[in-house]
Write a structure and sequence with these properties.
alpha+beta, about 290 residues, single chain
């Protein structure tokens, strides 16, 4: 529910982020223009090429910040409507991310050092359910895009051909197409952006542009704020519960984690909810 100063502060914060992204884009564009001019007057071919390469890097960075500014502007517009509402939930930043990819459903998965899913964010319930399926079944587009550090996609029968369990379960959610692009900078891959049932005219290039904006302007930056995405570390409790099950059953933690995943899948619930019951002593697996 939008209330007084809290809503105003939230809108103001989003406006500051949008303005900062535009300022960064303008700065990078200015740097690119300067090096383009220097390339035009450089006395040697070597210097011309060097300035041209530097200009290209600055223009690419400017494009990322501009894309980030547009995402923030969209969020500001949604927040402004919410702030005037009498009783409505605060909009998610991920809703705008999904819209930029031509869909209502998109999910952001960040990973830890071992490539295990850690922080999750989704634009709506179908996207969140699809994320949970990847974690429970150990297969899916975000996992492959992260491990292989390249875009992946599948539609129709290809979904079940590539991911037998995940593809079939995804069909039950009414999702018929999925694409995922890695969130990476240089040689660092920090996760993946998954897009479900994108509209006509949207493809890997558009998704990659959004993913690059998220990575270079909002995630791998000193002022990156995961809470902006409504993201929460949902896996810490799952791994804690797996440790408890491992002790109770005298088995490896990896085996205990599979027990939790299997139980959650059989119940049609999330691994997080199963873990919470285990930690409260309400559920014993064996």
């Amino acid at each position: 529910m939008a209330t007084g100063g809290g809503a105003s502060d939230t809108v103001a914060s989003a406006e500051r982020r949008a303005a900062a992204a535009r300022a960064r884009s303008a700065h990078e564009t200015s740097c690119a223009d300067r090096h383009t001019a220097l390339a035009g007057t450089a006395p040697t071919e070597l210097l011309r090429d060097a300035h041209a390469r530097i200009a290209a890097v600055h223009r690419s960075t400017a494009s990322c910040h501009l894309a980030a500014a547009r995402l923030h502007d969209d969020y500001v517009a949604r927040l402004a409507v919410w702030a005037k509402a009498q009783d409505s939930p605060q909009p998610l930043f991920m809703t705008g991310v999904a819209a930029a990819c031509g869909t209502d459903s998109a999910a952001l998965t960040l990973v830890g050092a071992t490539l295990d899913q850690t922080t999750l964010a989704a634009s709506n319930e179908p996207a969140r359910a699809a994320q949970e399926l990847e974690f429970l079944l150990g297969e899916g587009p975000a996992r492959d895009a992260t491990r292989e550090a390249r875009p992946v996609s599948a539609a129709g029968a290809t979904l079940t051909a590539r991911w037998p369990g995940y593809g079939a379960a995804l069909g039950e959610l009414g999702i018929t197409e999925v694409a995922a692009v890695p969130l990476s900078l240089a040689d660092i891959c920090v996760g993946a952006l998954a897009v479900f049932d994108p509209g006509p005219g949207y493809g890997p290039a558009a998704f990659a542009q959004v993913a690059e904006a998220l990575t270079r302007s909002m995630i791998l930056t000193p002022d990156g704020d995961p809470s902006l995405y409504g993201a929460v570390d949902l896996r810490a409790a799952v791994h804690q519960a797996a440790g408890m099950v491992a002790v109770q059953q005298d088995c490896a933690v990896a085996d205990a984690l599979e027990l939790i995943r299997a139980h959650a899948f059989a119940e049609g619930t999330s691994a997080g909810s199963v873990a919470a019951r285990i930690l409260r002593g309400e559920l014993h697996l064996g």
